[in-house]
Amino acid sequence: MSRRVLIVPGHGNSGATHWQSIWEASKPGFWCRVKIEDWDHAVCDEWVAAIARDVEALGPDTIVVAHSLGCLAVVHWAARNTVAIGGALLVAVPDPSAPAFPRADSIGFSPVPSARLPFPSIVVASGNDPYAAIGYARSCANSWGSEFLDVGARGHLNAASHLDDWAEGYQLLQRLNRKTRL
């Protein structure tokens, strides 16, 4: 993949066995992780500022790979910025009203913007994600103008889902890259 990739993990960051970390480790130099000071106490404005700073450094051709709360941060960033990017892979979009959502440690992410995203995107969801019903994820994809993919009952699509390097997800990223190539 020739484009720069910005990884935006969810609440708590992604550990070494999370597919985002595995992808990042396999492509040093072209892939980087958004720099957040406190991964356990998420403040939307801080995450949006970090995404803006990193996208500016990486350039407008950047593709963003977001997981969970990182997806909401990317959508908030897109609503507040005019900088175009190459596209975004948005995996396991959480619903701030879901019982499992870490409301006390995730400030300012609700309401979730519903405007169409100004770049190509794919929303990937699982049918048994405790952080969002599949209908919520599909509704977000429709509002954002994103392609939608239901990958079946795979949990929160994180390390606990035992996805390892998640080849299916990487193929989606490659498809997004080809789709947005200039």
Tell me about this structure:
By secondary structure, the protein is α/β, with parallel strands linked by helices. It has one domain (5-180): Alpha/Beta hydrolase fold, catalytic domain (Rossmann fold), CATH 3.40.50. The protein has 5 helices and 8 strands. The protein has helices at 19-26, 44-58, 69-80, 134-144, 167-180, and strands at 5-8, 31-33, 42-43, 63-67, 87-91, 106-107, 121-125, 147-150. The protein has a 6-stranded parallel beta sheet with strand order 2-1-4-5-7-8, sandwiched between helices. Strands 3-6 form a two-stranded parallel sheet. The radius of gyration is 15 Å and the shape is globular. The two termini are 14 Å apart. The model has no long low-confidence stretch (mean pLDDT 92). This is Alpha/beta hydrolase. Pfam families: Ser_hydrolase (PF06821). InterPro entries: AB_hydrolase_fold, RBBP9/YdeN.
Which CATH class applies here?
Alpha Beta
Give the amount of beta strand, in percent: 15-25%
Would you identify the CATH architecture? Answer: 3-Layer(aba) Sandwich
Kindly identify the CATH topology. Rossmann fold
- Helices and strands: which structural class? alpha/beta
Oligomer classification: single chain
> Averaging pLDDT over every residue, what do you get?
92
Cα-atom radius of gyration:
15 Å
Give the topology string: H per helix, E per strand.
Answer: EHEEHEHEEEHEH
Main pleated sheet: 6 strands, parallel
Question: How many strand segments?
Answer: 8
Number of alpha- plus pi-helical segments: 5
Q: Give the terminus-to-terminus CA distance.
A: 14 Å
InterPro entries: AB_hydrolase_fold, RBBP9/YdeN
Pfam families: Ser_hydrolase (PF06821)
Organism: Paraburkholderia megapolitana
Protein name: Alpha/beta hydrolase
